[in-house]
Design brief:
Structural class: alpha/beta
Strand content: 15-25%
Radius of gyration: 17 Å
Helix content: 40-55%
Length: 249
């Protein structure tokens, strides 16, 4: 089955010793497209380098809220012009760790949103414990293509996202015993969700505690298939089509 990994960080140092082998394993596992997501200046450069080396890897441009104080909008603009850069992200707000002051996070978020809209590019949202502010700021701009990566909101928030015409992406946390996402997985329209690993983070059950990588997507596919009463092949194909359309690939 064809699989689309919509959010990974293969440039992360945790892959330093075997990155080439991991990428080969992904290709052999049927992962035909991957988005390597940027967080700062270094990861933008590294993501683009990976995308240039591998045909089936694509990159993004953007500064994560943790790195909001370092925002260089001109750097994002230049990176976004690369033919393998397919989205602005991950951008948004993180009130859980509060590494950057919240007012600076909000300002960086707005600046990058404005750029994404000007460039007509999809947007990958990072939202942790900042649901209302993220939705409020997005509503100021009402961008067309938005995905909430690693969705962790409640049912009502999911309904608001879907009503706005945006997308939700599910990751390994849906396989955890304490997951509260089952009803959301069942409710989300077939054309409004993706799958991702966010690797090397959020390793799905039964491999929690180990490094995550895109080959673990099969556990996410199987979990969604069970919840939605569909075959894994159907889930893989649907999410492949959804992400391909969203990222214009």
């Amino acid at each position: 089955m064809k699989i689309f990994e919509s959010h990974t960080h293969l440039d992360n140092p945790k892959f330093a010793q075997d990155r080439q082998q991991v990428i080969a394993n992904c290709h052999n596992a049927g992962i035909e497209r991957m988005i390597n997501v940027s967080c700062d200046a270094q990861t933008m450069a590294d993501s683009i380098a990976l995308a240039e080396k591998y045909d089936f890897i694509y990159a993004t441009a953007g500064f994560h809220p943790h790195d909001a104080t370092e925002l260089d909008l001109e750097m994002v603009r230049k990176a976004a012009a690369h033919p393998k850069v397919v989205a602005i992200g991950e951008i948004g707000l993180d009130y859980f760790r509060d590494i950057s002051p919240r007012n600076i996070q909000r300002d960086a978020f707005r600046q990058q949103l404005e750029l994404a809209i000007k460039l007509k590019m999809p947007i990958i949202i990072h939202d942790r414990d900042a649901h209302e502010d993220v939705l409020s700021i997005l509503s100021e701009y009402n961008p067309l293509k938005v995905v909430f990566h690693c969705f962790a909101g409640d049912y009502f928030m999911a309904q608001r996202i879907i009503a706005a015409g945006w997308h939700i992406s599910f990751t390994g946390n849906i396989t955890y015993k304490n997951s509260k996402l089952t009803d959301i997985i069942r409710m989300v329209p077939a054309d409004k969700y993706f799958i991702e690993t966010d690797s090397p983070y959020l390793t799905p059950h039964p491999h929690r505690g180990k490094r995550n990588d895109p080959t673990m997507l099969r556990y996410i596919i199987e979990e969604i298939a069970q919840i939605r009463y569909q075959s894994p092949i159907m889930i893989a194909q649907q999410t492949f089509n959804n992400a391909s359309d969203f990222f214009n690939i």
